[in-house]
Amino acid sequence: MPLDTIAAIMQRRSIRKYEPKEIPEDDLGTIIEAGRQAPSAANRQPWHFIVVKDADQRRKLAEACSDQTWMADAAVTIAGVGKPAVNEKWHAVDVAIAMQNMILAATALGYGTCWIGAFDEERVKKVLEVPEDLRVVALTPVGVPADEPESRPRQPLSEFASVDRYGKQCA
Predict the structure, then answer these.
(1) Fewer CB in 10 Å around end: N or C, the chain?
(2) Contacts for 10 with CB less than 8 Å, ≥ 6 apart
(3) Is residue 168 part of a domain?
């Protein structure tokens, strides 16, 4: 049974080791649909998602992502591509919101993911044949986790949140 939203948020970890197992099409469809349902500025939906299943393509992508070769072990990699012509100011934020929806959906379904921001955009665009006028915003591998990393430390509330104005401590 899928996790609820809060549980998925609290349990999500960056996974860098994957089992050699496929993701059922129904689950993959649910993950992509979670991205499609994301809010976007003026509901313009300035995104395109490339679901990379082919092992050779995943390997090439991993190389374009600072040689993070472990990425290729996941069943798929999803690339979030923004369309500046649809919304120049907000396309990157909107793609990031949709990617987060997909990452949380994957977590709720029991899959591992990892935000990938370290990549050579031109190399990724070449591998995926992304048109020049579009922007690669982020990528994530999605697969069956082969490990369960512990939660990493988080800042105390007093260091990152205020009430009514900057610096006024939360109760």
Answers:
(1) C
(2) none
(3) no
pLDDT surpassing 90 at residue 110: yes
Q: Which two tokens stand for residue 71?
A: 């990425």
What is the tally of structural domains in the chain?
1
Structure pTM? 0.95
Q: Which CATH number do you get for residue 20?
A: 3.40.109.10
Q: Using DSSP, state whether 83 is helix, strand or coil.
A: coil
Q: Give yes or no for a contact between 54 and 108, defined as CB atoms under 8 angstroms apart.
A: no
One-letter amino acid of 166? Y
Domain presence at residue 113? yes
Which residue has 């993911």 as its token pair?
Answer: 113
Q: What is the mean pLDDT of residues 83-94?
A: 98
Sequence letter at residue 100: Q
CA dist., res. 26 & res. 111, Å (int): 13
